[in-house]
């Protein structure tokens, strides 16, 4: 089955070349047609590549359908064309086809695991039941044969799918706890830092300007700068690749430590900015100390070596007397003062 996926990929590539060869040659449309064909080819190829790890489920479905058709053909007799009920044939055929499409879609987006196995087995059994219902429209089985009715009415497939949805629900609840802190991040995809996948400086300034326009919200806002002290040394020692990986790990650790309504942004180099929402001065200082302690208590791997980071921080609290830019400058001044005292 895995080899079939490879052959199918080669067939798609060959079909793409043929289509490009005979595509319309008008200057205004040639690039558009070629680009569309290439996009379709890569989307279909990526879809079947995602199915490759689950080829055994598709092989199982093919074997079960083959055995099912062989048994029906051997035991029963084919009906005459005038006995066919086209309404049932179309309805039951489309139902079986849709369940098969569900199976392909789920397998194409999930990795191997218990939830995937439950979904796959449940959908396969459900598809087998629907196909048996379809075969009854073409093949008449003897009256003493009951296994076809049992197969059509069996709830095992639906029970397995229900169990899969229940396990998926628990899985999704865990995922939502993590993604909940990112939902306000991905709402502005154009302002994300491309390497760290968190908002950049432009988004930070927009957010602060918006907060400053609401005085009640602005007076309960805190701004914390966090800088990895030995980042330049690690960058010089291990290179840019490992340096970016370190910053990504630090950003993930900060995200896990933040409250749901706080915002994390990348300022520049090894500097991060945390915007605290709805905080009092004492609470902001406590949260800042906890974040610094969380980062410094972890040993993060850098180029295969455990590295315990040290952090410099600078905190500023908003008031009606300062603007968004002055709040940034105040936090930067506090960071510089703390760095000087730590050196």
TrEMBL record:
Alphabetized PROSITE patterns for the sequence: GGDEF
Stored Gene3D superfamilies: 3.30.70.270
UniProt KW keywords: Membrane, Transmembrane, Transmembrane helix
Domain GGDEF: 219-343
Domain of life: Bacteria
Parts of the chain that traverse the membrane: 6-23, 55-74, 86-106, 118-135, 147-168
Pfam families: GGDEF
Record-given protein name: GGDEF domain-containing protein
Biological classification of the source: Bacteria, Pseudomonadati, Pseudomonadota, Gammaproteobacteria, Alteromonadales
